Amino acid sequence: MLNFETMSPNDLRAKIRAREITGPTAGMAKGYTQANLAILKKEHAFDFLLFCQRNPKSCPLVDVTEIGSYTPSLIGNEADIRTDIPKYRIYKDGVFTDEVTDIKGYWEEDMVAFLIGCSFTFETPLLEAGIPIRHIEEECNVPMYKTNIACEKAGVFEGPMVVSMRPMSHKDAIRAVQITSRFPGVHGAPIHIGDPAQIGISDIEKPDFGDAVTIKEGEIPVFWACGVTPQAVAMQSKPSIMITHAPGCMFISDLKDEKLSVL
Amino acid sequence: MLNFETMSPNDLRAKIRAREITGPTAGMAKGYTQANLAILKKEHAFDFLLFCQRNPKSCPLVDVTEIGSYTPSLIGNEADIRTDIPKYRIYKDGVFTDEVTDIKGYWEEDMVAFLIGCSFTFETPLLEAGIPIRHIEEECNVPMYKTNIACEKAGVFEGPMVVSMRPMSHKDAIRAVQITSRFPGVHGAPIHIGDPAQIGISDIEKPDFGDAVTIKEGEIPVFWACGVTPQAVAMQSKPSIMITHAPGCMFISDLKDEKLSVL
């Protein structure tokens, strides 16, 4: 069996393009940044870019294509964003209409692709520091919640911040603040620690996205701004067409995670 | 005499609006972020925002107005960007045509104002750490140089990175790397230390902008990406109209410098 963990991003993208890989990308090309995708038409591009600029903790852009270009040249020089993600979702007027493995048929001349960093990047150094990550231990998706924290509005785009949650010991929580502060380009430090009610989460056992995880005796929930925020916000504005990656099926970039660390 | 150093940003902006202050803003509203200005028309706004996004060390955006809005709402809720800067420069087709204290007559419905962070923000913590800053000691402008480092292109915008230089002892240089790394949102860590030729600077005594400063025996030049870069790059593309602040006459924002620190 091929070892996807040590394979290069370029080789993996070739396999994805050839539809030899059509599922989740977690664990592939270890050490390389994976990114969320949101494609919008030109009419919304400035406002959405401005929204990301104003909400950097929720919307850490790792690349944005030029209008009409399907190559995220900064993080994947040979890549084609229309074919190099295992699975895409098509939304029309904010409604999910289709899941496909190739979006060549949907691509338009005035589209812009936004590649948004994800928490995979800071989970690796957390694990390396010996901090257990519950949803990895329990082999499920990270729990995500809508909060009462409003994002900064930009044009038609507005909505609440979505957060991801990782329970940990108080000692690990302090260390996790230090480690993730080194990555301001991919969510950065937590936005909240402790009482979920303070950020408008009424039931920690019922996440809005992803799966619930065990919070053990003596553990504290630690919340980070989540890359689902911009997708959720864009969807709410009901653009005529919007294309995203399917959950877990990310873009594997040439960017090394360590490049995103400021210290 | 009024003490501008301890006056609030809002009060200072009122005085600037009333033309009671028409000169440089250095040292005013200590602890609050001052910003460079670049105003462009909508046709260039997406590309310029993308240019800043792709070159965050040179172009640290602290706010961008919505199309047609003259209020940088994130950093100056009551501000009017058309009147709240002491002096503006007007460029037509890339040529400097006028210097004015008010741009109401130049403002158009499709203009976008880009507020770009400046090195004042990280110079305060350097001084507080006991690191002398030569151009402040010598009461002149920081020396700035064009380099052979190409910025990441975005649409019509491309050009070399401009850097500012501060000479210091080797010990201070190490500490300065640590301190400025805490401010990834305002230029961050240096981009080069030592031999100027390596980044294409042929004569350190002849800066392209600002003033030359003394480099003492045993000191090493330390280079940071400079906020002049985006203005220089935008100018090169010769937009029909572009408005900037006049040198040293900055926008005084409500944002505390410490807000821009990640640690």
Structure description:
The structure is a homodimer of 263-residue chains. The model of chain A has no long low-confidence stretch (mean pLDDT 94). Chain A is 21% helix and 26% strand. Chain A is an alpha+beta fold and 263 residues long. The first copy, chain A, is globular, with a radius of gyration of 18 Å. Chain A has 6 helices and 11 strands. The interface between A and B is medium-sized, with 24 and 25 residues. Chains A, B: Keywords: Lyase. Chains A, B: One of its GO terms (molecular function) is lyase activity. Chains A, B: Its EC number is 4.2.1.-.
Note the main attributes of this structure:
four-stranded antiparallel sheet, 6 helices, seven-stranded antiparallel sheet, homodimer, alpha+beta, 2 domains, lyase (chains A, B), 11 strands, 263 residues, 21% helix, PSTPO5379-like, PSTPO5379-like fold, 26% strand
